[in-house]
Amino acid sequence: MNSLEKLRNALPNGAAVMCDWFAESAQNAVIKTTDGREFTDFAGGIGVLNTGHMHPKVVAAVEAQLKKFSHTAFQVVPYGSYVELAERINALVPISGKVKSQFFSSGAEAVENAVKIARAYTKRDGIIAFGGAFHGRTLMTLALTGKVQPYAADFGAMPTGVYHALYPSKTQDVSVEEALKSIKRIFKSDIAPTDVAAIILEPVQGEGGFNVCPPEFMRALRAICDEHGIVLIADEVQSGFARTGKLFAMEHYDVQADIMTMAKSMAGGFVLSGVSGRAEIMDAPRPGGLGGTYAGNPLGVAASLAVLDVIEEEKLLQRSQQLGERLTTFLKGLNAPEISDIRGLGSMVAVEFGDDENPRTEFAAKVKNYAMANNLLLLTCGVHGNVIRFLYPLTIEDERFDRALEIIKQGVEAARG
């Protein structure tokens, strides 16, 4: 029995995997396989590796922490590194006034706790999310996620009190005006605004196709929340930590969220997530109301402190912008008629093939498969799976980046003919 047969024999059907090979080791933008191949990684563990695989500074920080202790449960025995990270994050998130933060494990856990905090603060139940959104795989975050297949299918009724509005999208022909009208319809038909605790959105939708929130839509959401006493939650799980050319995507906007969630590249491949927000909102749950056995694990905290240093020392915000500009220029230069849109912020870039009426899902799959056959790892996304997103490490070498772009060009040509 080979390794894939063992996998299928040991794991349930729901635990699907994309690659038909196994990782042996990884460094920066390269994954070496157990069968001797070498892949350039443009997937980044689904956006987790902005600082690359096994960054030396991150590894050193974790090794140093591991020699001290691996776990105490922070709510039982606290440790100073957690507080240090909270202080640094509080100073960095684009939220005015006094800010507080708390750390958890997964992005879904961060989102769940953000909802709990908003409900505790407002004493309301309703949550408005958006079509195409992805907020996690727990039942509450599945209810928020605006994509049924494969995430919510088979799992029955979702938690109540969640309503989905339209998200602006050029290729889905949803204007800002139409998206705002969909919120007003929810207020008229489903739930009064005075019963809504929070509106949650990704400034750049991840799984939804890297749809960038238009500035005028973000301003309008802020105005709606201010008018009705609703908490605005920005889910930055995928868009945070230099991916968009800013530390957080919300820095691209002239309004602010009340609460922000973060995870993925926060700890450079180690497990950590967080929620930051206005202090008066974050303080709403009673003592003991928020926590978790592994929440704010000391290894993840140590890694995150190192990640913040790496982003600053290696100027990854500028690097993100430079690589994103090179990628966007390259994609435009393909002049491929199959491409309906090239979009993104910084290095959070995607290319869409076809549109909502005529999605070129098979074309996107052919490009991805060609890349895989030529040792380049790509991910698709979008409601129809017709979008390719690029999540390379921001620390990738120029030569390797350019070779990857050439493979993508060849993949587009191969998919066409």
How does this model look, in words?
It holds the Pfam family Aminotran_3. Its cofactor is pyridoxal 5'-phosphate. The protein is an alpha/beta fold and 417 residues long. Helix content is 37%, strand content 17%. It is built from 13 helices and 15 strands. The chain has helices spanning 3-10, 44-47, 56-66, 80-92, 107-122, 139-144, 176-189, 215-228, 279-282, 298-313, 316-333, 361-373, 398-416, and strands at residues 23-27, 30-33, 38-41, 99-104, 126-130, 162-165, 196-201, 231-235, 259-262, 273-278, 339-345, 348-353, 376-377, 379-381, 387-390. The strands form 3 sheets. It has a 7-stranded mixed beta sheet, with helices on both faces. Strand 5 (126-130), helix 6 (139-144) and strand 6 form a beta-alpha-beta unit. The mean pLDDT is 96.
Class from secondary-structure proportions: alpha/beta
Number of strands: 15
Sequence of strands across the biggest β-sheet = 4-10-9-8-7-5-6
Query: Which range best describes the helical content: under 10%, 10-25%, 25-40%, 40-55%, 55-70% or over 70%?
Result: 25-40%
Order of helices and strands: HEEEHHHEHEHEHEHEEEHHHEEHEEEH
Shape label: globular
Mean pLDDT figure: 96
Q: If you compute it from the alpha carbons, what radius of gyration comes out, rounded to the nearest whole angstrom?
A: 21 Å
Q: How would you characterize the largest beta sheet?
A: 7 strands, mixed
Strand content: 15-25%
Number of helical runs?
13
Describe, in short, the structure shown.
This protein is an alpha/beta fold. The protein is built from 13 helices and 15 strands. It has helices at residues 3-10, 44-47, 56-66, 80-92, 107-122, 139-144, 176-189, 215-228, 279-282, 298-313, 316-333, 361-373, 398-416, and strands spanning 23-27, 30-33, 38-41, 99-104, 126-130, 162-165, 196-201, 231-235, 259-262, 273-278, 339-345, 348-353, 376-377, 379-381, 387-390.
